[in-house]
Amino acid sequence: MALIHYVIKRLIYALVVLIIIASIDFLIFQFIPEFVLGLNPATLLLGQFANRIHQAGALEKVLISIENTYGLNQPWDIRYVKYIENMFTFNFGISLDLSTGTAVSLVIGRALPNTVALVGSATIVAALVGIALGVVAAAKRGKASDIAIVDTGLLFFSMPSFWLGLILLVFFGAYLKIFCVSQSICTVDRVGLAYLHGYIMALILPVISLTLITLGTYLLIMRSNLIDVFTEDYINIARAKGVPERTILFKHAFRNAVLPVVSVVGLSLGFILGGAVITETVFSWPGLGLTIISAVDGSDYPVEQAIFFIIALMVVVGNLITDLLYAALDPRIRY
């Protein structure tokens, strides 16, 4: 019963947080630009038509049409309610980019699978390898293997992501030609298994890059937590009873030490839709990272606010899943 109450309470908290975030999203992309900065989204879009329209009064008619299409001529309370309704029903409207002129959901839908494949794969691999290396380092604390593992994790953690990406791209992509340097190059004019092969070959380098720069986080957290758990009384009692060290490590210590790592993994998965903007740019990976850059460059505020909301949604969902996993792994959390 306590678990059910805990789940309901966390769901309510998550919904309240999402409403607050959506309201901030509305202020950032619609209210503040127009009333603080004096920028009208309809006027910005109208500038894209200016060079094409030469008839007198035509620009004013187009401006009115734009305001009607995007609801920019409605009172603020109606716009806000409509905005909240659209965000929670994933009706994000039409992109301001004239080169596409398509629904924002389709723009995001084209980039979303690529970002999920990239950041999702890197997060899972980094978490599994980092936890494993953290366990080894804690078990061999103070020895040469521990020092080597920690120093290696810190080395990659401190590397700039763009620098590491360029090194991997130049060495393995351009020099050795083992992997593809661009997803568009590797998959052009390919179908079926050939397309899948090219896609995977282009995915490997950015996944390696993201994995290496995030590996140290899981490694150091797992090592630190496990060392702290080793000092607990129940571990000392188990050792006094003659319980094998391997059993103590994996049966008694690991479960408690892995809880904070679960939190970090959950939040990392929450940020998955945000993508790795720098990594996607370096490797020309057509994910949400490049989509965000294009939207900012083109002042495409419907795309910007939609991605902002989706990223926030996934962070809240990731945090919620983490809380529920905590409750499942540690019954004390439920109370």
Key structural traits:
single chain, 335 residues, mainly alpha, 15 helices, 0% strand
Question: What's this model, at a glance?
Answer:
The chain is mostly helical. The chain contains 15 helices and no strands.
Structural class: mainly alpha
Helix content: over 70%
Q: What is the approximate shape?
A: flat
Number of helices: 15
SS elements, strand count: 0
List the quaternary state of the chains: single chain
Which series of helices and strands comes N to C?
HHHHHHHHHHHHHHH
Q: How far apart lie the N and C ends?
A: 11 Å
The proportion of strand residues reads under 5%
Which regions are unreliable across 5 or more consecutive residues at pLDDT < 50? none
CA-atom Rg in angstroms: 25 Å
Tell me, rounded to a whole number, the average pLDDT.
81
Biggest beta sheet summary = none
